[in-house]
Amino acid sequence: MEVSVNMGREIDAIISALPCRGGVGTMYRVSASTRHYRDYSFFQTITENTVNMASDDVEFWIKPGDIKDIVAPEFSALAAKAQDILSTARMTAPQPDDRDLLGLSGQTLYDSLGPLRKAGFLNILKKA
After folding, report:
1. Residue 18 and residue 127: Cα distance in Å, rounded?
2. Residue 106 above 70 pLDDT?
3. What three-state secondary structure class fits 26?
4. Whole-number pLDDT of residue 61
């Protein structure tokens, strides 16, 4: 079965008449996809004649190759801990693409990260 949900503030998808076994229910794989983001899926048990709450929240993670630019805060607007991480950084170049960061720290490092590496840094900060 395929269900479409308009993007925006929608948080619920109501699916009716989904076949399932009585008793313990039926296990389904729920998969969600949208452009520029990785597909997300999880398993969901559906029990008949019951409102079944999702066993997981759908999280869309951007496809790294699709990042062209981001809107990021200025260095001065970052939390003190983030500024400290960048200021005390000792950059290495395990990949040839990272050589442009050697010897940089603080605001110069932050400004030189580019959209993909800056997005990665900000995502790590958010999750930490």
Report:
1. 36
2. yes
3. strand
4. 82
Three-state SS for 13? coil
Asked whether the CA dihedral 18, 20, 23, 26 is positive or negative, the reply is negative
User: Which residues lie closer than 8 Å to 54 by C-beta, 6 or more apart?
Assistant: 30, 42, 44
Assess contact for 75 and 86: CB atoms under 8 A: yes
Domain extents for the chain?
1-63, 67-127
d(CA 32, CA 40): 5
Per residue in 21-55, pLDDT tens?
888 899 999 898 888 888 999 999 988 888 888 88
Alpha helix locations (H) across the chain?
80-87, 106-112, 114-127
Taking all residues of the chain, what is their mean pLDDT, rounded to a whole number? 87
Main-chain phi, psi angles of 119, to 5 degrees: -60, -45
Question: E strands within 2-113?
Answer: 26-32, 40-46
- Specify whether the CB–CB gap between 60 and 40 falls below 8 A: yes
For position 20, what pLDDT does the model report?
85
